[in-house]
Amino acid sequence: MPFVTYGTSNVDDQGGREISLSLANNGLGPAILGPLEIRYEGKIIDSPADLLEQCCGLKPNSGLAFMTSPASNVAVRPGESVQFFRLKRTAQSSSTWDKLNEERWKLRVRACYCSIYNDCWIIEGAQTIPTPAAQCPSTWRAFSDGASR
Questions:
Q1: Environment class of 73 (CB within 10 Å of its CB; exposed 0-12, middle 13-18, buried 19+)
Q2: Residue 118 is assigned to a structural domain of this protein
Q3: What is the pTM for the complete model shown?
Q4: C-alpha dihedral over 38, 108, 32, 139, to 10 degrees?
């Protein structure tokens, strides 16, 4: 049985200043990640660029570098995590990083995932118990890693 949790951090594995948003499989079986939906102040966030624009006032096409990874339609083995958004603190990103460091706690993240046997669950935020679901919702506006743009 997979057991997926959402988490956020402001340090990387080496102790550097990096904000990350992630989904981790803390269960015993693989998790097939379904749609991921993120809201900020009630508004659905479509992409990492949209997140930084809505929460932190970053202008489109600012050239600020951030890292993304797909968090939907991927399999995650037990003990693995997917960091679907990362922003390192640099001279160029410092004001955006500082703002996101405060605002990341206001994100409402929900995700759906299934086992290899098509048993599905939904998580919202950092709750500890996932809610069983017959299947992953097709009506969510899924967060995109922005790679297709």
A1: exposed
A2: yes
A3: 0.90
A4: -60
